[in-house]
Amino acid sequence: VATTLPEASDSSRGPLPQTAYKHWITHVQTPRTEALLKRAANEDMISFAGGLPADELFPKAEIESAFQETIAEHASGALQYNWAEGYAPLRAQICDFMRGRGIVSTPETILITHGAQQGLDLIGKLLLRQGEPLAIESPTYVPAIQAFEMQRPKFCAITRTSQGLDLGTLRERVRREHPKLFYVVPIGHNPTGSIMDETQRSELLALAQQEKMLLLEDGAYTDLQFDAAVQPMKSLSGAESHVIFLGSVSKILSPGLRVGWIVAPEEIIRKLAVIKQAADLQTASLNQFVLSAYLQKNSLSEHIARCIAFYRERRDCMITALEANFPAQVQWARPASGFSVWVQLPQPTCTEDLLKAAVQHGIAYEPGLPFFPHDKPRNFMRLSFSNQSCERITEGVRRLGALLTKQIPC
Ligand SMILES: Cc1ncc(COP(=O)(O)O)c(C=O)c1O
Questions:
Q1: Rounded distance, CA 175 to CA 190, Å?
Q2: Ligand 1 atom nearest 51 alpha carbon
Q3: Spatial separation of the C-alpha atoms in residues 29 and 217, rounded to whole Å
Q4: What is the distance in A from the centroid of ligand 1 to the CA of 310?
């Protein structure tokens, strides 16, 4: 290929042929159902795809006044560059918020990021190397797989179900392959919505300590626990140097703000700040100032309590609809946290194929295949209840159930 390419300095040879750059970009895979889901996205579609918060919960008036106050009183700072680590008063406010979750931190141990997603990318860049093992739950949050894949690690996939993590296999693979990092979503695991129980969480931390492995705890859903609430792993004694925690306001306030944070030992934060600077210099000053103003004037905890009650009702509504409409061979568990229900269909149902028919009936969902780092089964689907009213959940599940009853042989 190299010999047929034009020299960079030679402009007389015309544009780069598509056949050349096609080779260079094949390692980035576009999810197979993305185009279909994008085409299907319209107001009439009852969409259980995506993990979107409910629009009704956005505190619009409070955010509006935080914006006004920011521009009236802090325009020079909010419209200016800031430090890569983040806006200092916001870092202090995040420390206070973390203290409420049992996590002891200082502003120096916090890096403000563009959402928890950027935390995954930055940590991948810092800790992962091509061919080196990364322990990861299977299934797991798809854009985490995408972020880590950029560094070409070797995924050690550890089964996670609604019952918890396959700790026996993790233990064995950690002892054999020595991954530096285990990416785990203990609370509100995406896609199962499960919470790892206390025994598993303390055994996992003990394993990390014994085997000198870091845990990357994704806490995007930590504050949305519908039944009995547990504290994040980062709050456990002994977690300080073994757990990196990712937080975010996306699920509890607004994903449009794009504000998340990393809590980690100070020397890790200092390195991540350098990588963050290379990526985007800093998180948008304006958004950080607005969040800071919002937190000063409002009780985020009270808002979170409203969110929990709201999503609990939608979860219950979806479970009731599933029980009433889905064939008996289909399995799911009631999620204790998160935005969705993880559904297992009998083999050989292919949820990617089924999606085309579902879209024709006005329903969208996420096929389960991309949630697996490898050995991808085809018979799972993720149904998000967060962004649809109870009426639409009931109607959507009824239509999907009718479709499944036709497709699945009894
Ligand atoms: C488990 C998990 N982690 C991280 C994220 C990313 O969140 P953010 O909007 O803060 O980047 C999501 C979003 O859906 C998620 O489900």
A1: 26
A2: 14
A3: 26
A4: 19
In the chain, what percentage of residues exceed pLDDT 70?
96
pLDDT digits (tens, 9 = 90+) for 246-295: 999 999 999 999 999 999 999 999 999 999 999 999 999 999 999 999 99
**Alpha-carbon separation of residue 297 from 69, 124, 290, 389 (angstroms):** 11, 35, 11, 30
Closest among 242, 241, 245 to 231, alpha carbons compared: 245
Closest ligand 1 atom to 185 CA: 1
**Ligand 1: centre distance to CA 117 (Å):** 6
> Is any atom of ligand 1 closer than 6 Å to the C-beta of 124?
no
The span from the CA of 21 to the CA of 52, in Å, is 34
CA nearest ligand 1 atom 6, residue = 117
Ligand 1 neighbour 379 (Cβ under 6 A)? no
Residues 6+ apart with CB under 8 A from 167: 200, 203, 204, 207
Tokens of 20: 């050349």
What ligand 1 atom has the least distance to the C-alpha of 259?
A: 10
Ligand 1 centre from 143 Cα, in Å? 8
What distance in angstroms lies between residue 52's CA and the mean position of ligand 1's atoms?
10
The answer to whether residues 207 and 172 touch, using CB atoms and an 8 Å cutoff, is no
